[in-house]
Write a structure and sequence with these properties.
With 306 residues, the chain is α/β, with parallel strands linked by helices. It has two domains: 134 residues, 3-Layer(aba) Sandwich (Rossmann fold), CATH 3.40.50.1370; 159 residues, Rossmann fold (3-Layer(aba) Sandwich). The protein is 44% helix and 14% strand. Helix 4 packs across helix 5 and helix 6 packs across helix 13. The relative contact order is 0.15.
């Protein structure tokens, strides 16, 4: 199945993801492709939220594939207040070859995809972060040599990153244990979809309020910030709610010496994770961050190359 857009990982199936991973591995080995398969193509980066990794990885990736990028930031977009997403999608379809949309509201990415004649890639929304989820699972496969038999323990907020991990694990047959405080569970709609897919793939998706239970026997321990961009007013309440969910050396010890640590970055050191864990030999956060570049190049080739 070759999708037209990548709004969530629900747009893909197992075969499409594994093909992306094969392409990713080839692109990573080549580093800079000798050919320029996207020469003459222009990618628009529509960012309501500022970003370092997402912007740089897409711009560099597009350049390495022979194309160019155009950045349209928060000042120009004004958080979607200047123009309806469907109008912007219709106009930009006549200028560009693809769009990466980084928005506060997931509905805006969906609307752009619905009215766009060119591929729309979700660079992050409040509901989903599909590029991150693909990079995460590719990294696990790269480090462990497999996805079958892997257990990922996700500790923290049931947010967009958690949603994409759930979708990816459900499609690929990976065991995922999600530990969140009460009141911070993943979206039940996404959870139901993941549980339904898990029955088909053999994945196990479970939810708990106990991080110690989640990390027991984990191949990977994964966390994200407790307070995301746009939630700053909730910071004190969240810090109180997430007490006991910090990934520290004791939690990693409970997972086991072979367990790896992952974080999608940026990290709030001392909050959701300690320096000791972030800087340990078990940490693969920088390899994980690098793989965003390679996975996104594979996505761009899949959607933009004709």
């Amino acid at each position: 199945m070759k999708p037209k857009h990548l709004v969530t990982l629900q747009d893909l199936d197992r075969g499409a993801i594994l093909q992306l991973f094969r392409t990713t591995a080839e692109l990573k080995q080549q580093r800079k492709a000798p050919s320029k398969p996207l020469a003459g193509k222009t990618l628009g980066l529509l960012f309501q939220k500022p970003s370092v990794r997402t912007r740089v990885s897409f711009e560099v990736g597009m350049g390495q594939l022979g194309g160019t990028s155009l950045y349209i930031g928060p000042v120009e977009l004004q958080e979607g207040k200047r123009e309806a997403p469907k109008d912007m999608a219709r106009v930009l379809s006549r200028y560009l070859d693809g769009i990466v949309a980084r928005t506060f509201r997931h509905s805006e990415v969906e609307e752009m995809a619905r009215f766009s004649d060119i591929p729309v890639i979700n660079g992050l929304s409040d509901t989903s972060h599909p590029c991150q989820g693909l990079a995460d699972l590719f990294t696990v496969q790269e480090k462990k040599g497999r996805l079958q038999g892997v257990k990922i323990a996700y500790i923290g907020d049931g947010n967009n990153v958690c949603h994409s991990l759930m979708e990816g694990c459900a499609l690929l047959g990976v065991h995922l244990s999600v530990a969140t405080p009460k009141g911070y569970l993943p979206d039940p709609v996404v959870a139901r979809w993941a549980l339904q897919q898990a029955k088909k793939s053999g994945a196990r998706i479970e939810f708990t309020l106990d991080p110690a239970r989640s990390v027991r026997g984990a191949t990977v321990v994964y966390t994200d910030v407790w307070t995301s961009m746009g939630q700053e007013q909730e910071k004190l309440r969240r810090q109180k709610a997430f007490k006991g969910f910090r990934v520290d050396s004791a939690m990693m010890k409970a997972a086991g010496r072979e367990a790896l640590f992952m974080h999608c970055l940026p990290a709030h050191r001392g909050e959701e994770v300690t320096d000791e864990v972030m800087d340990s030999k078990q940490s693969i956060v920088y390899d994980q961050a690098e793989n965003r570049l390679h996975v996104q190049k594979a996505i761009l080739l899949s959607l933009l190359k004709k």
